[in-house]
Amino acid sequence: MLVNWAYIKRDTLIHRLDPRSRIIFMLCALLAVGFIPGRGTGIGIWDARIILVFLALSFLQIFLARLTWRQTRRFWIVITVVAVVLSLVTLFTGRGAAGTYDVTAEHILWSPVTGIGWLDVALRISAERLSYLIAQIMRVMTFAALSVTIPYTIDPALYGISFRRLGLGDKLAYAMDLAFRFIPSLGRDFQTTMDAQRARGFELDAGEGTNIIQRVRNFAPLLIPLTVGALMGAEEITDAMDLRAFGVGPRTWLPQLKYHAGDWAVIGLGVLLVATTIVLKRAGYGGLWVPAFLLN
Fold it and tell me: What is the domain range of residue 55?
């Protein structure tokens, strides 16, 4: 049985919008921030002042949807840890910033170790790297805030029809529908498998002296049944679709979607953001911004 995300049905401005308009806006914002090339300024926007506008719009969407910290706590914890770890690696190594700023003209702020091979690169903090760190974290948070409202505020019954009405084929639209349900279904199976193993006397953190490596090894008895269960579940879905002659002819969808004035306004805003970003990148703006006080 497939499991859905924790969809919360409410009467808010975000919930009343057509799912297609929200998906289009999200894709436009992601394209504007992360994927538009420029003249020597890297891919996407790296100016923290411009990213702040997109970050504010994304959190405004969360506020209008009335999503609370308790409902999205796990999501934000994982995203924050990933963003901080990856950004710190970039900060100390300088890798991943090629094309965003000139690494040969860095303004060094802190370099306790010099002349010891790779440590000279690892323990060097410059104004450019610090600005890159802030911009990278803001970009990741913007991407996360733009996407977190999708599973929590779109009715799971509308996934398939939304992607189909966006121009995808029946098979691809249904594949996207299943992809949205895969993670929560896998989480449900993982919890069920863990409960079953514990009922048989198995403990992940058995013993007071159990270290992190031993705990990782203890996950092995969970991975095998989890993988086998995921494969069997996929095969059952495939068989059920084949028995219903899925893909033989055009598929009909019971729900119906219709754009309203608010939906067109959201789509127009998304297109405007993309167009504005393209103009800025063409003009040479949007590259890494380093505050003046760091350069002095």
Answer: 38-153+284-296
